Amino acid sequence: MKTKLLTLLFAVVISGYTVAQDYAFKVLANKGTNEVKSGDAWVPLKAGASLKSSDEVKLADNAYVGLVHSSGKPMELKKAGSYKVDALEKEVPKGSSVLSKYTDFILSSNSAEAKKNRLSATGAVHRGETYAIQLMLPENQHSGIYNNAAIINWEGTKVAGPYVVTLRNMFDDELAKFETPETSFQVDLTDPKFAKENAILVEVKSKADPKQVSKQHLIKKLTPADEERVKTSLNEIIGDIGEQTAMNKILLASFYEENNLFIDAIKAYEDAIKLAPDVDMYKEYYEEFLLRHGMKR
Amino acid sequence: MATIFIFIVMYGVSKVTQLPQVNAFDPISNALADFDLSDFAFNKFRNDPDAKERELLDKIVIVNIGEQSRREFALAFQNIIKYKPRVVGVDGFYNCEGGIYDIENCPQLADTLGNLLLASAFQQTKNLVLVSKLLQTDSLAEAGDFDFYDSIEVADEMFRLNAKNGYASLPTDAKYQEDVKICKTFFPQRVVNKKKELAFGTQVAMLYDSVTTKKFLARNNTEEVINFVGNVEHEVVKLNSLKSQDLGTTDVNRKLSFLALDVDDVINEKFEPSAIEDKIVLFGYLGSYIGDPAWEDKFFTPLNKKIGGRANPDMFGLIVHANIVATILSDDYIDVASQNLEYFIAFVVCFFNVALFSFINKKWPVIYDGVGVLIQVIEIFLCGYAVITLLADHHFKSTLGVTMGVLALVGPCYDLYAGLIKEGIEKLRKFWLTRKQKRVLKT
């Protein structure tokens, strides 16, 4: 009986130890399109996920990841790049006692306070501009497009038509100009005027009052490497959703959204609504998509 | 005698500095009016976070509601609730301020469907806590400025049908919501109109672990010190030159303590469901996005790296409530030294210091001045260490303010007493008590 009890106690202690040590870090904060490689595949990083020592984390530009080590000590990652988790573990600072912290504080010269760069702050603010016409297109950091067609929509309540849609290249040279009474316009990137351009800028203004103008939005073709990556992922699911149904278009829109290809997602939602104009649910999905990515307010 | 003299001087000095004519020209005292040495123990000189503390903090998940409308919040709320958290707290008012129910003053009424969606989501949630606010009725408010409340503001009925209320009011010196707010303590429970009301954090903790919370409430303290364990500060910096710097207002070990989900994380479900299941989820405002340097509903707490003078507030109200929940669930509370104990310690320390100074003065008068100053400096540092270590290691809060005042005054006061007062008393004693020559000759 005594042996059994001891064995049980030992098992409990061991299992407790194992539970406490089954992760290296936990993700407490995750901003940006960061990824984690656990095994062979890179998958999107999620808040609340646990990272093992063998994992690797990839930080996107302007991203931020807040981690906490299993010992309880936090760590921040702010610079873009790849980080091996076992290397990060070695960087976790060793703890120090209250007495040593107090002694260090008393003996320190407080030189950090006497900083030399005293011009970090300005007496000014960054201001966004307000535009009369709001295009339902993503911000420039999510302007990538995989397909060759982009649909541009805008609200027509504030500024009445007809409208002039201008397409320019990155050097501000005008590539094409169209006039339309509608609040929607489709750009065909296979058009010879745009075929050589990697990126084009779109602007919409009122024909009657050219001061009533939209912000210039970017539509950027993917790099060959990114195009290949999307193509590979898309091929994996295309067998299931290849049929031209509204539901498949909605699923396709979700795929594009997950890959931050919002312009392609817009086209997929529009196609779904055209295929099933009586289904209000698809319109709601589209509306929610536009709202959650700030393309419609 | 010298000990009593030092206390009289200290009392006199404190009264003189409180005079408006003196106080107005004392910017240092004004700037450091809220300074408390024990605040150091909360940020700079604290034991590092450990696995046990991590286990406690992992029970609480923070969700930012940003600037979402009620309809958007309903969708985000459902995305969390489906993963079955054990307790849900919503730190946002869902009513019309001032009780004015018209679309012009309360535009959120216009979105009827959004309101119904949110109300339905709330009604389907088990263990939901909504915030309320302690108020004074007009007649009570006119009676004077005192700490008594006879009214309570709650969410609209459709939202609170299946919810419990917890007041989010926190003790600060702020006169209105946007005023400077310094928060170190909270009132765990109050009686309003003969009914016991629980604080938001207390109510959340009660639903999560009633045994521990009842034990905490059994202490029966009107006001409890919040054992601030951590903050949520995400640094959203675009300038590369700043990325290697720590720009937080909280110590680096305490700025990332709770799992925090931003608006986008919830809408796009960019979180691990296991992080929500059976946990406490607190919804509230952390700026338009986490990392937004907004000051709305932001407090100064002992975790602020700058513990006195001008500084940025460091903690959103939601995280203050999360710290209250953690304080209660930790089952390891902070006791506070009574005023009488503070005076007693000061008196004992003063008595022994006077004895020590007197001894040194008699034995080694040549080195008395130098050694005296050295002893004072060492003792003040030891006092500082005692305050910090008492709080950090033993969860006992004592400012030792009176003792430090005594230590600062003991040297000069002893000199004053020995060189002037004692001599003067001796001369007076001789003058009055020694019989005069004429009277001696007469007898």
Number of helices of chain B: 18
SS class of chain A? alpha+beta
Q: Please, what is the average pLDDT of chain A?
A: 81
Give the CATH H-level superfamily of the largest domain in chain A: Immunoglobulins
Kindly state the number of beta strands of chain B.
Answer: 15
Helical region count of chain A?
Answer: 8
| Terminal residue distance of chain B | 36 Å
Give the uncertain stretches of chain A in residue-range form. Answer: 8-20
Gist of the model:
The complex is a heterodimer of chains A (297) and B (443). By secondary structure, chain A is of the alpha+beta class.
Structure in words:
The complex is a heterodimer of chains A (297) and B (443). Chain A is of the alpha+beta class. Chain A has helices spanning 2-20, 85-91, 98-107, 192-195, 224-241, 246-258, 262-275, 280-292; strands at 25-31, 35-38, 41-44, 50-51, 56-59, 64-69, 74-77, 81-84, 144-145, 149-153, 163-168, 174-180, 184-188, 199-206, 217-221. A 5-stranded mixed β-sheet of chain A has the order 9-15-14-11-12, covered by helices on one side. Chain A has a 4-stranded antiparallel β-sheet with strand order 4-1-6-7, with no helix packed on it. In chain A, strands 3-2-5-8 form a 4-stranded antiparallel β-sheet. In chain A, a hairpin with a 2-residue loop joins strand 2 (35-38) and strand 3. Residues 8-20 of chain A have low confidence and may be disordered. Chain B folds into 2 domains: 2-33 and 336-433, no CATH class; 47-333, no CATH class. Chain B is built from 18 helices and 15 strands. In chain B, helix 10 packs across helix 14 (317-330). Chain B is elongated, with a radius of gyration of 28 Å. Chain A binds chain B through residues 20, 26, 28-31, 44, 46-50, 62, 64, 66-68, 70-74, 76, 78-79, 95-99, 101-102, 105-106, 288, 291-292, and chain B through 44-54, 58, 61, 72, 75, 232, 234-238, 240, 243-244, 252-253, 255-262, 264-265, 267-268, 270-272, 274-276, 290-291, 381, 384-385, 388-389, 392-393.
